[in-house]
Amino acid sequence: MASAETAAEHERILREIESTDTNCIGPTLRSVYDGQEHGLFMDKLEGRIRNHDREIEKMCNHHFQGFVDSITELLKVRGEAQKLKCQVTETNQKLQNDGKEVCLLTSMDELRQCRLQQRNIATTIDKLTHCLPGTNISPSICAIISDPAVFSPRYYPALRTLEQLEESCLPQAGSYRFCGIMSENIPRLRTHIRDVSMSDLKDFLESIRKHSDKIGETAMKQSRSVTTVKTIKLSSRVMCLSLTHIILQIPGAQDLVDFSPVYRCLHIYTVLGARDTFENYYRKQRRKQARLVLQPHSNMHETLEGYRRYFNQIVGFFVVEDHILHTTQGLVNRAYVEELWELALSKTIAALRTHSSYCTDPDLILDLKNLIVLFADTLQGYGFPVNQLFDMLLEMRDQYGEILLKKWNQSFRQILDQDNYSPIPVASPEEYQRIAGQFPFQDPELDKMPFPKKLPFSEFVPKVYSQLKEFIYACLKYSEDLHLSSTEIDDMIRKSTNLLLTRTLSHCLQYAIKKKNVGLAELVQIIINTTHLEQSCHYLEEFISNITNVPPDTINATKLYGTSTFKDARHAAEEEIYTNLNQKIDQFLQLADYDWTAAQGGAQASDYLSDLIAFLCSTFAVFTHLPGKVAQTACMSACKHLSTSLLQLLLEGDVRQVSMGALQQFNVDVKECERFARAGPVPGFQGDTLLLAFIDLRQLLDLFTQWDWSTYLADYGRPTCKYLRVNPQTALTLLEKMKDTSRKNNMFAQFRKNERDKQKLIDTVVKQLRNLIATNQA
């Protein structure tokens, strides 16, 4: 049993056969013989012929009585004519026989009357013959007009019939009253046909407005299928044929919309001489529909479906216009379609720029990009220029990159926050291979060690490296189908990756380094991690080259800035280590509690200093995995800071008096620092290099504890001076503190000779130091 679609298609073909001229029926018959249901159609055609035969029979029955009456009258006339002929014959015979003049005159008069009757009869028959075509045509026209739902496809033949009636039949019939009535009604009938066909056109325009979404969706599916066939390498001819069959099954615009109303209306207006009116009306209405289609919904940016509906409507609109362009002669022209496309292109790009700017989801941006590419490829397949759309996609690439950077910023932050900053323990070869698959790490010495063992870096190294690769893949996904060369894609990925490295990852590393409560062990691990990430940069270069097929040594190829990024992070961590160590030293020094007026110094170092030295020893013990230079610099920096801080502690303004006993205790503490430096807490120092950090303090304390002012004053300014690192101002400040102490302690013993001599010596040294300072300032 035939499907509803097949029955509808057969019905449409039958209507075309009924309404189309004989000269144009060839394509219709070809579609019949090309179809698969030829037998069903022939049955349908036979049924339709029988229906028309019945209609003809009804029409004949309707006019049969009149025809019979006319024949009867003609037969009567023929009988009368026969009688007349007989009478004429008899009269003629009579005249011949009688030859009488009177009889001859009478017969002649009768003969004239008979001939007049014959002429009238012939004229009547001739007039009736000319009127019959018009009277036969008129009922069929009235039937078409009276039932437009059934006979709407026959409006065009009706107009041709009216033209035949007006130009041929009615002039031949003569100037009868019924001919005048028919002539007067012909313009009204034409107007009626025009109005009804215009109503059909309005229904058609409303239909394509509603179906634009579906038409566009179908066209984009077809474009996607064609693209799939072009891009996928099929392994067998059978698969290719099956895909082609699937594509052929996707309906086109002509299958979803019946374009016959617009064709009929165009023909009708052309026959009526109003084609320009029809064209202007059609174009005006389609421009209005274009403005409605191009107006996006306010919430279009919220979901991909909003964008898809928007694109479907636009594609559907232009697929219809393209079909009209190629199936009608001049209803729309290329200039008109290009004008509409320019309008659509500008409004579409503006809408996409506005709505895509609200998007913060990289997956949605990527899906939107793929949808725009499909939209552009579909319309390009219909001959519309789409270069501006691809230019806009290149603009969106920057937005997509910024969104990716924000997303990866959160990922990096999460990785750094969750990391334990401890070497990764590896218990089995499988676990080792798993980590090696995530991060390109090679250490022959470590490979020789038995399991379980520890990798030098923490978890964030393979995780960060994996995230870098995921970012590169995300950039590659956006660059697909943008008609870019491999070099352009490679350059785009490298520039985006550089932004990720120099801006996002660099800031995250700085955040991890600078955040509060970060310990020295964490900073040390960060240095180790960034060192390994720096060493992996060339693997990233190779990874990008492999996925873009562009050699890394290509001329003008952008180089990754990963090395500098990780170096900067490592240097920042090193500086933070130095700062952190100094802060720890300051915290210990705040616990210092010297008795600056003590008469006698102790034999052991102060408790705070012993704790400080123990802390430094334990701290430098964890520096074993650091590069040697970093550990040495940290140790030297700590010792210098300790030396400077101790000197400032001795010279600070709050300490107004310093006794020799306090100075002796201070000297014991400095010796403890020197013992720590001499022990070599960090390997790699040559000789007593680390002791140089305390040389200023040592020379100053030796000068005061040995009271060797004569040597200092005599050798000052010489390169070989024993106390070369002692500044006169520093010595003066400390000496004045001791001078005040001496006076206070000897207030009742000022008449003793030794004390008086010592006081005089201090005064003399102070005076000489001031002279040295004045000389240096001059």
Automatic annotation (TrEMBL):
One of its GO terms (biological process) is intracellular protein transport. One of its GO terms (cellular component) is exocyst. Belongs to the SEC15 family. Component of the exocyst complex involved in the docking of exocytic vesicles with fusion sites on the plasma membrane. Residues 44-220 form the Exocyst complex component EXOC6/Sec15 N-terminal domain. Keywords: Exocytosis, Transport. InterPro entries: EXOC6/Sec15, EXOC6/Sec15_C, EXOC6/Sec15_C_dom1, EXOC6_Sec15_N, EXOC6PINT-1/Sec15/Tip20_C_dom2. It comes from Cyprinus carpio (Common carp). This is Exocyst complex component. The keyword Thylakoid does not apply. The keyword Aminoacyl-tRNA synthetase does not apply. Residues 388-737 form the Exocyst complex subunit EXOC6/Sec15 C-terminal domain. The lineage of its organism: Eukaryota, Metazoa, Chordata, Craniata, Vertebrata.
